[in-house]
């Protein structure tokens, strides 16, 4: 795995093919400052380019997952021009989009509060597993801003449905892990001591499949959630299956099946 050097993010390799990304501003509940926004961009570029990384687990250091934007940074933004604010806004939002656009599966291990931009990061993941200590809210509306920020108005309704999303975004209400599981915001809740093992287990299961097949699966899921029709969705599926049928991954999967052994896929 490539060597990663950041000041607000740690990257480890708990298992072959799996990168464990830890947001590390624990004294601020991993709130996002300008440095972390820039490092999230750099992280996504590097993860995408690293062939040794085939799945990603995203979590937070200490008691929090990510408390959203650093409130000191928000206070400073009040003194900027609207043009400067817009540039900063676009940079932060594009970092969330970069996480969502990663072609490799991202599993969020939500160990504590995920508010505002932290909620957006969790939503940008493909799978969310939470500890009982996790809490979620759309913090922006509580700060005198619109509840629609850094992609949440697109991401949240697609995960929990429009009704639940509307309530959370209009009120800014804080919900606990149990409610998050009930409305489908998280896939499941596990004990805090089991959280990283559960998330890494999901990542490991995806790594057991062919990298090309997983990439095409994630691509089709993201595109077909907004497909204009069933026919359009099936057309993309057909194209992807035709491509995958000629890949080294399918050939190896079939060999492994006939030889009764685990498949071994090249990165």
CATH fold call of the largest domain: 2-enoyl-CoA Hydratase, Chain A, domain 1
Please give the radius of gyration in angstroms: 19 Å
Give me the oligomer status: single chain
**How is the largest sheet built, in terms of strand order?**
1-2-3-4-6-9
Q: What's the overall geometry?
A: globular
Quote the distance from N terminus to C terminus.
11 Å
- Major sheet summary line: 6 strands, mixed
Average pLDDT, rounded to a whole number, is 94
Helix and strand composition category: alpha/beta
Q: Roughly what percent helix? A: 40-55%
Features:
2-enoyl-CoA Hydratase, Chain A, domain 1; three-stranded mixed sheet; 2 domains; 267 residues; alpha/beta
Task: Explain how this protein is built.
It is globular and about 65 Å long. It folds into two domains: 199 residues, 2-enoyl-CoA Hydratase, Chain A, domain 1 (Alpha-Beta Complex); 49 residues. A six-stranded mixed β-sheet has the order 1-2-3-4-6-9, with helices on both faces. The longest helix has 20 residues. The model has no long low-confidence stretch (mean pLDDT 94). The protein contains eleven helices and nine strands. With 267 residues, the protein is of the alpha/beta class.
């Amino acid at each position: 795995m490539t060597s990663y050097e950041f000041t607000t993010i740690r990257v480890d390799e708990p298992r072959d093919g799996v990168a464990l990304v830890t947001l590390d501003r624990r004294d601020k509940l991993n709130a996002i400052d300008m440095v972390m926004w820039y490092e999230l961009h750099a992280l996504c570029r590097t993860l995408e380019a690293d062939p040794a990384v085939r799945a990603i687990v995203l979590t937070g250091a200490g008691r929090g997952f990510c408390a959203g934007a650093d409130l000191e940074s928000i206070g400073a933004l009040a003194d900027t021009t609207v043009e400067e604010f817009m540039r900063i806004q676009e940079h932060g939002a594009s970092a969330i989009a970069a996480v969502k656009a990663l072609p490799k599966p991202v599993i969020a291990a939500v160990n504590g509060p995920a508010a505002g931009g932290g909620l957006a990061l969790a939503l940008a993941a493909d799978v969310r597993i939470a500890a009982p200590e996790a809490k979620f809210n759309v913090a922006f509306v509580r700060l005198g801003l619109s509840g629609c920020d850094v992609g949440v108005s697109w991401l949240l309704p697609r995960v929990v449905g429009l009704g639940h999303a509307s309530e959370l975004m209009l009120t800014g209400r804080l919900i606990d892990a149990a409610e998050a599981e009930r409305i489908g915001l998280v896939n499941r809740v596990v004990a805090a001591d089991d959280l990283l093992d559960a998330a890494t287990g999901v990542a490991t299961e995806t790594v057991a499949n062919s990298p090309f097949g997983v990439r095409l699966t994630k691509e089709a899921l993201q595109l077909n959630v907004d497909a204009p029709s069933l026919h359009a969705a099936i057309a993309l599926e057909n194209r992807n299956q035709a491509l995958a049928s000629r890949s080294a991954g399918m050939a190896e999967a079939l060999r492994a099946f006939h030889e009764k052994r685990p498949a071994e896929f090249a990165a």
